[in-house]
């Protein structure tokens, strides 16, 4: 039925939450911050994630003054910890280097990619920073498995807009009826697939409760279940 399987990247194939946390822990360790002070670390991390989300949303929605991801991170550090501007820049460089050059997979992701890659074209549609997404896939030795990698900052449009799916379909040389899209977000992935009239598989990794307005083609809780779903004939 399908000729290609397209994946969201963060928290679908790659464990973004752990990547972010691990990169920051390595950063503060390298710069000797919060040594043996768990309470200060927890307060900093709570503050950083709040400010970073705000700056990231301003950046992606083109509302703020940030022109680069580095500016987003510098502003997030500035609002979270009282250090000099040069120290905020050093923290940003360390953190971004760790984040871009390490790859932590969701459970079962490698197995699923190698299994499906022999039967389908593989693609990625991601709201993110292209250089980071491609470096992380390279670090995980899976970059070459994909026939198409479409990242929002590179193409100027993101999920849930239909246009980013159109770009992926053009690169794959397929129609919207020939692909299945897998993602973990109802707001961006499900709605984006719906806007593009593409079948959607909801990777419900956090056991999120759906409302009556959500009607994905498939729902899985483990990535390995995708292999079973694709091998089960659909009943007309």
Automatic annotation (TrEMBL):
Matching entries from Gene3D superfamilies are given as: HAD superfamily/HAD-like, Putative phosphatase, domain 2
> Which Pfam family is one of this chain's hits?
HAD_2
Which terms does the record give in the GO molecular function aspect?
hydrolase activity
Keyword line: Hydrolase
Q: Can you tell me where the transmembrane regions are?
A: none
Q: What is this protein called?
A: HAD-IA family hydrolase
The organism encoding this protein is Cohnella herbarum
């Amino acid at each position: 039925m399908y000729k290609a399987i397209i994946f969201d990247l963060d928290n679908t194939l790659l464990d973004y939450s752990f990547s972010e946390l691990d990169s920051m822990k390595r950063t503060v360790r390298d710069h000797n911050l919060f040594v043996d002070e768990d309470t200060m670390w927890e307060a900093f991390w709570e503050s950083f994630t709040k400010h970073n989300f705000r700056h990231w949303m301003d950046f992606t929605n083109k509302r703020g003054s940030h022109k680069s991801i580095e500016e987003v991170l510098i502003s997030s550090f500035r609002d979270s910890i009282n250090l000099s501007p040069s120290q905020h820049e050093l923290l940003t460089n360390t953190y971004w280097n760790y984040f871009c050059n390490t790859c932590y997979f969701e459970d079962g992701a490698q197995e699923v990619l190698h299994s499906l890659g022999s039967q389908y074209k593989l693609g990625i549609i991601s709201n993110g920073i292209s250089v980071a997404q491609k470096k992380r896939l390279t670090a995980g030795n899976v970059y070459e498995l994909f026939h198409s990698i479409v990242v929002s900052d590179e193409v100027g449009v993101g999920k849930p807009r239909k246009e980013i799916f159109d770009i992926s379909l053009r690169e794959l040389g397929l129609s919207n009826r020939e692909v299945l899209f897998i993602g973990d977000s109802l707001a961006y992935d499900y709605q984006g697939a719906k806007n593009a009239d593409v079948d959607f598989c909801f990777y419900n990794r956090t056991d999120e409760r759906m409302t009556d307005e959500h009607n994905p083609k498939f729902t899985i809780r483990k990535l390995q279940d995708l292999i079973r779903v694709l091998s089960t004939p659909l009943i007309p």
